Amino acid sequence: MALERIYADILAVRVIPNVDPDLAEQFNLEPHQRSLAIFTSTVDDIGYTALDEATKRADVEVVYARSFYAGSGHASGPLSGEMIGIIAGPSPDEVKSGMEAVLQTAKSDAFFEAINHEKTHALYAHVVSRTGFYLSKEAGITPGEPLAYLIAPPLEAVYGLDAALKAADVKLVKFFGPPSETNFGGGLLTGTQSACQAAADAFRDAILDIAVNPIKY
């Protein structure tokens, strides 16, 4: 069953070519990390996926990434969205290259899937074929390993994770116990790329079954 895709909007982007030392200290920057790129996104998990991609395409490190409470529907302003991400690098050109990766990933590579016509019920079943430095650190795995990034509303997330773990030879390496800051839940699973894909497919199927029969158990 093909579900309608929900992409993230990158709401605001700014580059700091030469960050002030006092601010650099707050982000624990290394001496060579002189430049920052900052962005906000309407969807946090897509933003995190995009940050990981940036670490694969440019000499940058994710130095700050946080979700906002209650999600983009309760944002603090029109450019706030659901999360903020900051990458650091040795030069403006390097962090700009990282931002290009963020923009491309958010625009075409990573997406939630709408379960209903109103797009009020959605899931994230994304497979990263080769992790960068950010998600591999979050998951406690070696950079370059595959990862299934699975997110859904609270009950669906727990049930779907169980189905995903039973469907393939994968391991749960990071659990996002519901509710997260945005009131979702989920986890990161690792295994071979084919196993991660099978787990993601099982996660999606389990959640679709809940959507059709929410009370039937």
From TrEMBL:
Keyword terms of this UniProt record: Bacterial microcompartment
Keyword Flavoprotein: no
Family annotation (InterPro entries): BMC_CP, BMC_dom, CcmK-like_sf, EutL, EutL_PduB
BMC circularly permuted domain segment(s): 1-111, 113-217
Family matches, as Pfam families: BMC (PF00936)
PROSITE patterns the record matches: BMC_CP
Gene3D superfamilies, A to Z: 3.30.70.1710
CDD domains, A to Z: BMC_EutL_repeat2
Record localization: Bacterial microcompartment
Name of the protein described by the UniProt record: Ethanolamine utilization microcompartment protein EutL
Lineage: Bacteria, Bacillati, Bacillota, Bacilli, Bacillales
